[in-house]
Write a structure and sequence with these properties.
The chain has 145 residues and is mainly alpha-helical. Helix content is 76%, strand content 0%. The radius of gyration is 20 Å and the shape is elongated. The structure holds heme C. Heme C binds next to α2, α4 and α5. The site of heme C has 19 residues, from α2, α4 and α5.
Length: 145
């Protein structure tokens, strides 16, 4: 094998191993999460409140244009922000609240996605999950903000 080719094989093996590490969720010590948020918690919260308010407006306005498309998009992004928030603190209660926002927002997103095909959504699901998210924001803030 030509030396340039050997180099290529070694490099791709190294990338492969690095990729495996990331997938396994381990750093070099194998002890902590591989995923590290790059944005400050402050910026993340500012974005969460934007998405949260935008989602609330859409849920409360049955006449909003392309309503299901935008409910789907906003809820899914709120869920992803909450998913990142899980990694901002190792405390069990903190992570459970962040995960709860994520999971409730995903229920809303899935309901809206389904409604884009079927034409009708279960509005009670939107309302109940949105109210639950609001309570969860508050529950975490009471302890950590
Ligand atoms: C699991 C904990 C947790 C959850 C859930 C949570 N937050 Fe926060 N939030 C915090 C913490 C901690 C701070 C303080 C951050 C700081 O000051 O740097 C904060 C601060 C904020 C702020 C003030 C931003 C600032 O720093 O000025 C807003 C706005 C906010 N959160 C919105 C929300 C909304 C909306 C939700 C729900 C959709 C939510 N948060 C859910 C932990 C949480």
């Amino acid at each position: 094998m030509k030396s340039s080719k050997v180099g290529l094989v070694l490099a791709s093996t190294a990338i492969g191993l690095f990729g495996l590490n990331v997938l396994a969720g381990a750093d070099e010590s194998g002890k902590s999460d591989a995923f590290k948020p790059v944005a400050s918690l402050h910026s993340l919260m500012e974005a969460q409140v934007d998405y949260f308010k935008g989602l609330g407006k859409l849920i409360n306005n049955p006449d909003a244009p392309k309503r299901m498309k935008y409910i789907h998009r906003k809820a899914e992004l709120l869920a992803e922000l909450a998913n990142v928030n899980v990694h901002h603190n190792k405390a069990v209660d903190y992570r459970a609240w962040a995960a709860s926002v994520r999971d409730d927002a995903m229920v809303i997103a899935k309901e809206a996605k389904k409604a884009r095909k079927s034409g009708s959504a279960d509005e009670a699901v939107f309302k109940a999950k949105f109210a639950n998210i609001k309570n969860t924001c508050g529950a975490c803030h009471d302890v950590y903000q």
